[in-house]
Amino acid sequence: MYGVNCAFCHGSDARGGEGRPNLLRAELVLNDRNGELIAPVVQNGRADRGMPAMAVSMPRIVDIAAFVHSFRVGGYDVSRMRPPSIVVGDPKAGEAYFKTARAGRGGFGGPAAASNVPPATVTVTPASGPKVEGRLVRIDDFIVTLTLADGMPRTFRRDGETPKVAIHDPLQPHKDLLRRYSDTDIHNLTAYLVTVK
User: Fold this and answer.
1) What percent of the residues of the chain are helix, what percent strand, and what percent coil, each to the nearest 5?
2) What pLDDT, in 10s, does the model give residues 31-70?
3) Distance between CA 184 and CA 129 in Å, rounded?
4) Which end of the chain is more exposed for a tag (fewer CB within 10 A), N or C?
């Protein structure tokens, strides 16, 4: 009911916007308990403020008032509508999966493994001339760009397999794991990881 009758002026989170009234800080709303103060305004309107009268029954106004009162009054973030949680997995199953994968080779690394990961490097072998190595900046079907040890950038045009390009990505083992995860594994791992502080 709020979305149909009120949100277009007062916003989906009752904070107003673009010169429209903020219901969360309106004295009338703050003093209202069950729609008794809100009802006359809704049913009679406020022509001087551009609010039309609306044919909304008292029981529906009570429901709208309950919705508006459900917002916490506070700073910007605490008073906004919070989205529902998207975590849908089983944290216990995620913890078991995490421990099993971590115990095996090619499993998850510990905290040290996630920090100070060196950047991906690349070796370019032109059809003629010496190999060139450096930090990978960009690669696509047409070019490969790298930064040499002295900081100078180099770009090579690519035509199919020429020049030969070998990428050395320290995160590749983790990327390879993505093909092994099922959706259920990912949901469960996520549910477990949000519980870890």
Assistant:
1) 40, 15, 45
2) 999 999 999 999 999 988 888 999 999 999 999 999 998 8
3) 49
4) C
In which order are the strands placed within the sheet that holds 164-168? 153-157, 143-147, 132-139, 121-125, 164-168
Tokens for 195? Answer: 């519980």
Homologous superfamily of 2-79 in CATH?
Cytochrome c-like domain (1.10.760.10)
**What's the rounded Cα separation, in Å, for the pair 167 and 69?**
57
Question: Could you tell me which residues come within 8 angstroms of residue 169 by beta carbon, excluding any fewer than 6 positions away?
Answer: 120, 136, 175
Task: Domain ranges for the chain, please list them.
Answer: 2-79, 91-193
pLDDT in tens, 64-98: 999 998 887 655 555 455 556 778 899 999 999 88
| Nearest-angstrom CA–CA distance, 26 and 43 | 18
Residue 55 identity (one-letter amino acid): A
Query: Which structure tokens are listed for 86?
Result: 């998207």
Question: In sequence order, what are the residues at sequence separation of 6 or more whose Cβ sits closer than 8 angstroms to the Cβ of residue 109?
Answer: 174
Q: How many Cβ atoms from other residues are within 10 Å of residue 101's Cβ? A: 16
Q: Is 99 helix (H, G, I), strand (E, B) or coil?
A: helix
List the structure tokens of 79: 């008073």
CB within 8 Å of 125: residues ≥ 6 apart = 131, 163, 164, 165, 166
pLDDT tens per residue, range 120-176: 999 999 988 899 999 999 999 999 999 999 999 999 999 999 999 999 999 888 888
